[in-house]
């Protein structure tokens, strides 16, 4: 990858990192289709780099949310334990799965989540009395982590709407999510270690950019963004990324 292309990729990833940091997601769910424009091999190039970026950006987003007291540590750590075990299984399954099937599964998942985020009444109102259903979130985290590892995106983009639907206020859900997706992002890398083909120069630039962007995004949410707005940001982001990927797949 030449210098000009690296700059373009870095600028794009910065924007995606700010947006994903606002949601406590880690950047992989948006980075996978974005990096797919510049890298040809989904399983051996895009997924390993995206998973590592996901872990790093989630760490910095978690710090940003923690500074504002928006991390509920008990559910965050319980979800971390569940997802950290399931994610490597999904990554292992990805090694022998057709790339066309992986992209198809990715697009179906994000389309469904966009639909749920734009539905009225899907989750608690900001400031309303809540009784979150942690048990439901923990049960759903098992298949979520496997599917996320299969897609190479980390579980955050699936876990965030589940937490909202389970009764967590969107800002608190984002803080919990940022902590919960950090460890599985790295454990999901284990099956990729022997087969990954990553340009270390590109990876270094993207890690620095991603870390800065995700921390900024988390601080923006903590201080300025309301819960309903956060849900809309999530929905818009995944709709845009899905639409772009569909167009490029059709053209290709």
From TrEMBL:
Keywords: Cell membrane, Membrane, Transmembrane, Transmembrane helix. Its main location: membrane. The keyword Membrane applies. It comes from the Bacteria. It is found in: Cell membrane; Membrane. GO terms for cellular component: plasma membrane. InterPro entries: TM_pro_TauE-like, TSUP/Inactive_protease-like. It is a multi-pass membrane protein. The keyword S-adenosyl-L-methionine does not apply. Belongs to the 4-toluene sulfonate uptake permease (TSUP) (TC 2.A.102) family. This is Probable membrane transporter protein. The lineage of its organism: Bacteria, Bacillati, Actinomycetota, Actinomycetes, Micrococcales.
């Amino acid at each position: 990858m030449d210098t000009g292309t690296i700059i373009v990729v870095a600028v794009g990833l910065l924007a995606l990192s700010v947006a994903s940091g606002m949601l406590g997601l880690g950047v992989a769910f948006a980075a996978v289709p974005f990096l797919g424009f510049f890298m040809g091999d989904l399983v051996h190039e895009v997924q390993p780099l995206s998973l590592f970026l996901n872990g790093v950006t989630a760490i910095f987003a978690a710090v940003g949310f923690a500074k504002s007291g928006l991390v509920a540590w008990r559910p965050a750590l319980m979800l971390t334990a569940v997802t950290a075990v399931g994610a490597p299984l999904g990554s292992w399954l990805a090694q022998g799965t057709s790339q066309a099937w992986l992209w198809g599964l990715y697009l179906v998942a994000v389309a469904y989540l966009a639909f749920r985020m734009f539905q009225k009444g899907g989750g608690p109102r900001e400031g309303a009395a809540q009784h979150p259903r942690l048990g439901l979130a923990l049960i759903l985290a098992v298949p979520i982590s496997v599917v996320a590892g299969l897609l190479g995106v980390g579980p955050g983009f699936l876990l965030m709407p589940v937490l909202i639907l389970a009764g967590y206020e969107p800002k608190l859900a984002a803080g919990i999510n940022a902590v919960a997706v950090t460890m599985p992002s790295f454990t999901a890398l284990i099956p990729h270690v022997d087969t990954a083909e990553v340009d270390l120069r590109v990876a270094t630039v993207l890690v620095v950019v991603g870390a800065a962007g995700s921390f900024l995004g988390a601080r923006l949410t903590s201080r300025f963004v309301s819960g309903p707005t956060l849900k809309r940001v999530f929905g818009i982001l995944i709709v845009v990324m899905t639409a772009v990927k569909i167009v490029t797949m059709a053209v290709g």
